[in-house]
């Protein structure tokens, strides 16, 4: 017993859980399986919250009446004698009698079997479940200590459970336990905060700052949910709130973060390993072959294996080939790159040149061009782009191509026709039509257009410019007879039909738009190509133009999920799909999902196609109005108004002015609303004979004027303005605007004491809205419309329309801009979407979120957001409760 007096008692006590700690509910649910398992293994890099997680789990277990002992190890415990002393102390705290029968010599190897037998016998004699947490197991160094633990894991009785936490995978065999289902494993992939946990942590820690959803999303992406880094971000923002304006760089203005990485990650590494890591930090992803080619290190494969095994902030990346690919945690990669830059700029350029040639040899064009450009080897980069086979070029190469173009002299550009074509297209697709237009003029004057084999593609470039000019009629003339070659660029083969379909839709020729896409099908083998996904997004856009919200949701959600899964959150296909789907979700009153889709995609508001920019702008402003305040929405619209004026986008400008007028009327500011309407009038006059997209401008001005006239008690004059809106919406088949006009006409006739006419318009709107799947088009008209709709309840309606009316009335909230309503459990079955029901069915089969995502072919984030919505709708807080509720109400078996 005298040795116990020498033990440090704090090693048997878990750390205190602070008030700012986020409960890791999803991981705790995984650890609940420990009741049926022998061993739990939690491995992860420093700062990923392993200890905090296990402390939370211990608390839950203690509350349930379980006996849980804790042992924290340190560098002092690497020898067997010391390790065993602390292990014995921890087991004694579980009531296992080890004082007698184990002599001091028990610490010698020949006595390990006797030690294990005594522990097993002692634990088996206790009639309760016993749990021992061993934290920081990476400090165990003596092979005999590992031998002792291995024997305990293999032979301990069913009531003795071990939970081991370590920075690296311990040298223990878990294969038998894994095969028998006796092992619970959590690793670096599971430990980071998911988006919901990051949001909860930041909102709790930085309540006074009120970070926007975009900022929350950006911080989550920047840190990849690394808890230690999130804590440092919190410290930084508390000490300097102005840093929120430069979130991407803020980590490197924090000495704490640099020190943390240097002291906790780098300090114990051999110099050659640290240098290797710095060299490969120039790469966004890497494998052994690439790392060896770039660094010249023959042992690159062994180095990567060590980094992977020791969890040195390195993650596996999905890839098509068998060789494993990796990437560094984003902040850690920046940290390493900063260290590399201090060494020698010339050596860094050499690393990029080697990388460029490795990628070029494997036809990985985007990465090859990026590294060649960063090395300053512009001629090689230009050769790569021009020499690439047409079918290999896609939208994921936009960014490296633009970086190259910004550095390339124009004489070189014009001497390379393929590069010129792709350059013009790149500028046109990124909202810089003036530059593309100027290049086109110079190219034609130079005579190169007549000599180049690529000249037949120029109509596509011109059509892309016309899209940015918001002129849809010329696009039809340019592309109706355009035919790409079978092996042409994907942007040519799929971009031309997509642009043509959108132009048809703008002209109200919706059947021709869909036929255009149907007659240019995407081969199954190419469906995941970036441009193929953009083309698929054009179908969603066409459905939204017509107001067919249900079809737009069905096609758009699948397209966006696949775009994100294959190409990432920031891919062009994901960006373009996000603007459309966010508006669809907003219309369906799925507010949180709409906000999540737009979060951290600020480029949608600045540099995409006009239709995309205005959809994202109006959707974002309405989300601000619902979730924040009218002032926030108005401030955002004023910023966007200035932007659209600066780039000459009149239609987007008109949308901003119309929305500002609507919000001002909701706030009873008729003066401001009248001023906005007055600014719309000259634009309506300028575009009174416009076709396609721009024909919308006089209709929107009429809509704004009608709202103002209704608010100032001129319903008869409002009806005259609504006739203009009705004519446009009917001619161009704009379903949502048609319904909006019907609803406002009903309000006008009600004000004129003409209830029969009001009811006629309400019924027409209800029938059209039910067919299209509209929700917020009704809710956004507020209390005055709710009262009118309520008068229809006693009326005989078709079954579908009656159910639709009931659902609409249930969703109305208080006030004129009713928030997305949260249904009670009584009507939850009708409020759950088919996807939510499908997810409930799968989680009832004990599937993980990842497995659900794979089964439904959607992203992991989509699964999580759907689960969150299910919890809100059902009024529950866990998967178990949701499944229980669904079974009780017959929603699933």
For this structure, the quaternary state is: single chain
Say what the CATH topology of the domain at 2-186 is. Answer: Rossmann fold
Based on CA atoms alone, the radius of gyration comes out at: 32 Å
Class of secondary structure makeup: mainly alpha
- Spatially, the strands of the biggest sheet line up as 2-3-4-1-5
Fourth CATH level, the homologous superfamily of the domain at 2-186: P-loop containing nucleotide triphosphate hydrolases
DSSP, total strands: 7
Beta fraction of the residues? Answer: under 5%
Q: Would you state the CATH class of the domain at 2-186?
A: Alpha Beta
Give the CA-CA distance, first to last residue: 58 Å
- Give the helix tally: 47
Estimate percent helicity.
55-70%
What is the overall silhouette?
Answer: globular
Summarize the structure in short:
Among the domains are: 2-186, 3-Layer(aba) Sandwich (Rossmann fold); 195-266, no CATH class; 828-888, Winged helix-like DNA-binding domain superfamily/Winged helix DNA-binding domain (Arc Repressor Mutant, subunit A).
Keywords:
mainly alpha, Rossmann fold, Arc Repressor Mutant, subunit A, two-stranded antiparallel sheet, 47 helices
What topology does this entry show?
Layout: H1 25-31, E1 39-43, H2 50-63, E2 67-72, H3 80-92, H4 112-124, E3 130-135, H5 143-155, E4 160-166, H6 175-179, E5 183-186, H7 195-205, H8 213-223, H9 227-239, H10 247-250, H11 255-266, H12 271-280, H13 288-295, H14 300-309, E6 314-317, E7 325-328, H15 330-343, H16 345-361, H17 365-374, H18 378-387, H19 398-407, H20 410-414, H21 417-429, H22 433-445, H23 448-451, H24 458-468, H25 472-479, H26 490-506, H27 510-518, H28 530-546, H29 549-567, H30 572-587, H31 591-598, H32 610-627, H33 630-646, H34 650-666, H35 670-686, H36 696-711, H37 715-731, H38 735-751, H39 755-772, H40 776-779, H41 782-790, H42 799-811, H43 828-831, H44 834-843, H45 849-856, H46 860-874, H47 879-888
Parallel strand pairs: 1-4, 1-5, 2-3, 3-4
Antiparallel strand pairs: 6-7
Helix pairs in contact: 4-5, 7-8, 12-15, 13-14, 13-16, 16-17, 17-18, 17-19, 19-21, 21-22, 21-24, 22-24, 24-25, 24-26, 25-26, 26-27, 26-28, 27-28, 28-29, 28-30, 29-30, 30-31, 30-32, 31-32, 32-33, 32-34, 33-34, 34-35, 34-36, 35-36, 36-37, 36-38, 37-38, 38-39, 44-46, 45-46
